[in-house]
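Posting for a labmate who doesn't have an account.
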Amino acid sequence: MERINRSDYIALVGSLLGKGEAVVLTGHRRAGKSCLLELLAAELSDKGNVIYIDMENPENAELETFRELSERIKGSVAEGSRNFVLIDEVQEVAEFEKALRYWVKQDGVDVVVTGSNAAMLSSDIANSFAGRYHRVHVSSLDYQEFLLFYGLEDTDHAFSLYLRWGGLPFLYRIPLEDERTRTEYLGSIYDTIFVKDIVRRRNVRNVSLLDNLARFVADNSGKVFSANSIAKYLKGGSMAVSANTVAEYMDALCDTYMIDRVKRYDIKGRSVFEQQDKYYFEDLGLRNYLCRGNRSLDLEKVLEGAVYLKLRRSGYEVYVGQLSGKEIDFVARRGDELIYVQVALQVTGEETYEREFGNLKLIKDNYPKYVVTMDPHVGLIHDSGIVACTARDFLLKVLKTR
């Protein structure tokens, strides 16, 4: 099967090899981690001995413990050669980190693994590796990659397709006109994440509550809320549940990498709030699948989600800004860089214009400030050094992948 190379990820992983540290590829299911690992295996095949273990292959079902995994690696290591140990969905092996901790210390051995659960980065694992690992988060396709995979030119129609279907890489193999099969595929991915990565792994009892929470987040993507506010909302709908249970289940959803929790940031005080976060889906298609039937009302939410995903894809840490009671959609930091971003469908109305531009004007530092919109004439606006641009230009030209 043909594989389309996501070259920036391959280059990044390649730059991290040979340093005596494990490379951990994280991300939700079907975001493209396995494909990247296969592409990496092909690229490394002429540089040494590749040991590739796919833990979702039934042939590897007997590798249940770290000892069995370590023995498999030991039996495949080539003496006198550089060895590349590549393991897909390594979290399927109990205490896998004990095996990796040993092999990452061996001369001439590089270790790259993938995982679909945030348990991959628990404090126990971080302590086990004692800082000897790099995390590379693999996202769904951004808009630029979407165009590449589908062989499309940048147009309003292509952008609308991206906002609708999102960036799960395999979807490009299903014809765009086959909406039923595409929707069924999204549903199958959600079901797999829901059942395998949450219900079974966490032994969840209240499955209905968990599903309702996922759909609540999808419908309220980009809104600020807390576990307490969700519990009150559910109680109003005749589903009595404690805030602690809501918080536990929200953590479970975020641990799959399907949903991101975004903290609020006090711009003046340069501090992070510990309550009332925003949540965004890591794939627009999965979010839209859960909200199907009401998408025509949600374009601004989806657009905001697309901007958030591009910021993350470009290597930024992303927060929701707060300043003098006003909200800045995104405060994004990458090393010494800092940018502020407001997202709106249109900025033609006086009230909308004042909200989007006025909030940014309150920020008195000289870091770049952007208003991102679907308005095709926004480039004619020049106000206080704020850069106004269309969403397509922002995603393709303004933001550069790390």
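Reply:
Got it, the structure tokens are right above this. Residues 30 and 349 are 41 Å apart (CA to CA).
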